[in-house]
Amino acid sequence: MKRSIVWHRRDLRLHDNTALNQALKSSDEIIPIFIFDDDILNQRQDFSPACVRFMLESLEDLEQAYLKKSVLLVFDRGKPLEVLCKLQEETGASAIFFNEDYESYAHKRDTAVSEHFKSKGVEVHASFDQLGIHPKHIRTQQNNVYTVFTPFKKTWLNSFNGIPSPEPFPKDIKSHNIKRIQLPMLEDICKASSVEPEISGGAGAAAALWQAFLAERIYHYKTQRDFPGLNATSRLSAHLRFGTISIRQLFTDIKSLLEEKTSKDKEGVETFLSELIWREFYFYILYHFPQVEFGSFKPELAGINWENNPAFFEAWKAGQTGYPIVDAGMRQLNQTGWTHNRLRMIVASFLCKDLLIDWRWGELFFMQRLIDGDLALNNGGWQWAASTGTDAQPYFRIFNPELQSKKFDPNGSFIRQFVPELAGLPDKYIHNPYSVYQKSPLMLESCGVKLGKDYPFPIVDHKIQREKALKMYKL
DNA sequence: TTTTGAGTTGTTCGA
DNA sequence: GTCGAACAACTCAAA
């Protein structure tokens, strides 16, 4: 009789779950557990109520899915190693299965767990599950690690067809059901938050989102993905964060779309695939360069002398900078726990290169608000925006918020949704109310906006800040 | 070893 | 308003 513990962490699904499948194949009975890690809940600065709420929804869904198989999912709270020790002793389990995780905290935690149980003669199996291709398998011809996306992608695509299809789910699960420990009361944390997510957790919700995206929107992804006013993206980010959908399922479905002779618009599918490869790339970077978690990827940009003006930071966080597209993005983040990729870039560029604030401040704030906050991807995105990351572009890139606004929210529909005090402005004014004010404050007031009262004056002048940023970066 | 081609998502300037 | 060139001349990865 072999009894195995299946430790769920960022893989809150039954379907095509590598660790779970491995455990089922080699055990007579399994005991699935999820541990609320006290170290994370109590001490981590990057705690996000929206993210925890999503996690709780996903856990409820997972619990129900197990119940349908007459399996009880165990919940406990504490230090993972202690909780697992207790469970192993209580149940006499002879193996522990979980899926690999590449963040430094998780890596340390898992190493300690592995060493402890191996020394006690308990098997430990860490499975590869989170990505299509393992970071250790992608190397340049000289056996170096890639630091530029495009050649990485080219090599990655050579192995695309080798990514396995999802494994069919076993009909029966035999489990050793132990007394269910009370689900920790975390709902209060979520209730205290004003964030109202538009995304629900759980594998069912993930599958529905993916099917809806596959049915139509993926074909328009290339042309529409950059417009935050359109519903053009997959919205799967939080599901990929918590593993409520299998990445192999996504790749397998994409593969078959690309093989279809009649596929309407392969460009949309290919562009979406490329975004998933960006995800693979940033995990790859974190895996091979774990130091990015704590500072600049480019050593020469580690010592920037940021101004770090706290008043500017507060205005940015609150969506009160006087730049409508920036404020709309920040308010979307605050209200829903999610914001469009284009907006993430715009507000990040604005924080670093207009407000001259350390990108790590923004990175942390995003983690505190996002429903999908993922260290590898959030860090990669922020380092890109701050120009400290792997971006190979030779020229210095500073977004112009007004141009970005005109280009990607041309009729201002996104701004009107999240900055309603500007809703009365005509399209041509909404991207820069201050320039209208400079010509005629009365003209602006006739549209219902008194600057400084209804909506703030710009807290900085982009043109001046741009010059300061160039100097600060010594370029 | 040296050379060659190319790099997510840009902006500004001046015609 | 639109368009092409300049930005500044790096670094990576493959040939």
Number of helices: 23
Computed CA radius of gyration, to the nearest angstrom? 24 Å
As residue ranges, the low-confidence spans are none
What shape does the CA trace take?
globular
The CATH topology of the largest domain is what?
DNA Cyclobutane Dipyrimidine Photolyase, subunit A, domain 3
Average pLDDT score = 93
CATH superfamily (homologous) name of the largest domain: DNA Cyclobutane Dipyrimidine Photolyase, subunit A, domain 3
Quaternary organization: single chain
Structure description:
With 475 residues, the protein is α/β, with parallel strands linked by helices. The chain has 3 domains: 3-128, Rossmann fold (3-Layer(aba) Sandwich); 131-166 and 203-288, Serine Threonine Protein Phosphatase 5, Tetratricopeptide repeat (Alpha Horseshoe); 299-472, Orthogonal Bundle (DNA Cyclobutane Dipyrimidine Photolyase, subunit A, domain 3), CATH 1.10.579.10. Helix content is 50%, strand content 6%. The chain contains 23 helices and 5 strands. It has helices spanning 18-26, 38-43, 49-68, 80-91, 104-119, 149-158, 187-191, 203-215, 221-224, 237-242, 247-259, 266-288, 310-318, 324-336, 341-353, 359-369, 375-385, 401-408, 413-418, 427-430, 433-439, 441-446, 462-472, and strands at residues 3-8, 29-37, 74-78, 95-99, 123-127. The chain has a 5-stranded parallel β-sheet, with helices on both faces. Helix 5 links the parallel strand 4 (95-99) and strand 5 (123-127). It is globular. The protein starts with a strand and ends with a helix. The model has no long low-confidence stretch (mean pLDDT 93). The chain binds a DNA duplex (15 and 15 nucleotides) through residues 140-142, 144, 146-151, 225-226, 274-275, 278, 341-342, 345, 384, 391-400, 403-404, 466, 475.
